[in-house]
Write a structure and sequence with these properties.
Blueprint: H1 4-15, E1 25-33, E2 38-42, H2 55-65, E3 71-80, H3 92-101, E4 107-111, E5 116-120, H4 121-124
Parallel strand pairs: 3-4
Antiparallel strand pairs: 1-2, 1-3, 4-5
This protein binds tetrahydrodeoxyuridine.
Length: 134
């Protein structure tokens, strides 16, 4: 059984590989599948800026590319290099990508250096546009 703290530890470790020469803001994410596997991701920036990818999407795309589609939770931790005093909430694009694969009750766990708080996808992306709208 992987609890929020263990998932956050995986996110913290993933953050160590963030490639952030432009923003110096490092993010790590750890995505838990319903079968209990963890896929991690970090943000990866680019000199042309727009091709950069967030940590959350790195983790989700890694998992989906390995055949995973059923997700339970994601832990996220970010801050400027060497700092995790504040919580890092997922950007709008990442919320939309999460909504593609996850239901309203999917858990989004945010960590800073001394605490963890938990939201649902529905709380962070109410009234989402999904396949049901098409
Ligand atoms: N970033 C993430 O990886 N996840 C978030 O939830 C917010 C922002 C990254 C993108 C960029 O590399 C850096 O943080 C600053 O925006």
């Amino acid at each position: 059984m992987i609890d929020n703290k263990a998932l956050m530890t995986a996110a913290q470790k993933a953050r160590q590989t963030a490639y952030t020469p432009y923003s110096h803001y490092c993010v790590g994410a750890a995505l838990l599948t319903k079968s209990g596997k963890i896929y991690t991701g970090c943000n990866i920036e680019n000199a042309a800026f727009t091709p950069g990818n967030c940590a959350e999407r790195t983790a989700i795309f890694k998992a989906v590319s390995e055949g995973e589609r059923e997700f339970e939770a994601i832990a996220i931790i970010g801050g400027r290099e060497g700092e995790t005093a504040d919580f890092c909430a997922p950007c709008g694009v990442c919320r939309q990508v999460i909504a593609e694969f996850c239901g309203k009750d999917f858990r989004i766990i945010l960590g800073n250096e001394n605490s963890i708080k938990e939201y649902t996808l529905d709380k962070l992306l109410p009234f989402a546009f999904t396949d049901k709208d098409l």
